[in-house]
DNA sequence: TCATTTTTGTAGCGACCGCTAGAGAAATGC
DNA sequence: GCATTTCTCTAGCGGTCGCTACAAAAATGA
């Protein structure tokens, strides 16, 4: 057995043994740099964030960026994945944990009001805005797919409630899901345009009032 | 009196006499070129539409563009003005012509469903999307101001109905206006993401169901 | 010590960006 | 005809874009 030499001070990333690699070690923490890139892309979008911007905020040289993350496009892809797990997971959590579609939508909209106006990071949703007006169609399409997949997930959840009798049989699941998606995207735009958490929460409550109250909560 | 020589075939623009200017006449129709620029900016946004793109779709050289429209920024400003009168005026028309705030909002959302999916031009609203992720902050801010002014106009109209007793006294006019703005922007995003007119109309009807039905139409 | 491996900083590639100088072309007034 | 005015075309400016070749630097294994 090799001794687990891992407390050398710089290698925060390698938590799991793995003997130190051969060459010169990285001078920066990969996760920290990735988070900086995430914030830059979140604030300015894919296209308006130049590689020069990225190297500045990540505090590394261009060759280091390309060695660690590939090109700009794959760095952005990784940023989107990290964003999804770190900041954008409240929707799927609500869908998984709440007992009814209505509860899931309610929790999603309320948490969106908070998440989209949180201090410490840009307002609104990266998935909604970061690939708008993008001259690389694949990038624009990849986020569009994520948005539409979210709406499809709402639709599935609503249909399940209809099938279970929780929602009326004549419920238009597709329209209800799209309405929810439009609200989320509209609230994200509002957050970018300066709306506060309280203002977005009021919007969310109005939007929620359209739901038939046949669910578990009737108070 | 000078005879009104105005039928020289090329000068569509000068409808009002004004003796022909001194130098070499323009080889293109300014309004037609402006409309082409409008469509380009609408589809790709301010930043992603290069001057080279513009000269190609307008079918003129770069010096002609700069002579006729100033720089890229002022061309975009003019495009936004033209867009407002030609494509984006349905909101203020509804606010001016409908008897109640609710009717104005209903007409706005229904007409948005049509306008945002009309064939022959890009989907969605130029004001919502064309300055997203823009590295020129003034451009981004100018469209943001237009969006927020729209919401303020809704709020004023709603407050007028509250004052007139058409809407309940405890109506949250600001939240209701912001909800309307979020719906418009969300529907615009949906249109960009591929939603059809019928789908957006269904979303609009759902959104409208939140309004208290104390207005003139109760059928 | 010394060869090997990997990262780092410098410096710059070709392509495109918004924009314009300058010469020629097409109209006018005289 | 001829000067004047205005527009058009070619060509290219300085700057930034995404990206990379290259050599020095810093770790390893022997």
UniProtKB/TrEMBL annotation, chains A, B:
DNA-binding region: 50-69
Composition bias, Basic residues: 13-25
HTH tetR-type domain ranges (all copies): 27-87
Keywords from the UniProt entry: DNA-binding, Transcription, Transcription regulation
Keyword DNA-binding in record: yes
Chain residue ranges for the region called Disordered: 1-29
The keyword Metal-binding is assigned to this record: no
Name of the molecule in the record: TetR/AcrR family transcriptional regulator
Organism: Streptomyces levis
